[in-house]
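May I ask for a single protein's sequence together with how it folds?
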Amino acid sequence: MEMNYCSNCGDKLEIRLIDEVERHSCPSCSFVHWSNFSVSVGALVVKEDKLLLVRRSQNPGKGKWTNPGGFVEQTELIEQAVIREVQEETGIKAKVKSIVTLGDFPGRVHNVYITFLLEYVEGEPQPDEEEVDGAGFFSLKEMESMNVADLTWGLAKIAFEADSDGLSLNRLDKTAFNGYTLFNI
């Protein structure tokens, strides 16, 4: 979505060259709309050598099998977002083990995609029937005959073949980091 009016004062934005990039800016209050960014998370939940997948019932990706995931809410931590998305889409309870990939998808909306490896805790996969109409744990062999999204294929190989556990949540008090949550080796 393109911004046309200032979110601070409501005046019509104009295009100005700022830092050698054309940007929407306000002639009245100097507000600059830097860009549209989103942060989304994906879950790799493995149970007994099978990966939790969902079948998308909406576009993008309608009919494709993917790993559960979605957008991070403005006020939630990324590790809370991935746990919430797994539970909402499948009913599965899981807990974060590590971050295994960081994706960067620039475009009209610049998306940063963080993939987490999660430990299965409990539950049987049940699709939410809103965003997804199928859910289950599948082996790589079973996935060969399914309509699996390309990105999910790559992530499945990481889940089953990774040489590293990825970045783990730093359990030190957040006040030591001015409120930031850190993941590290």
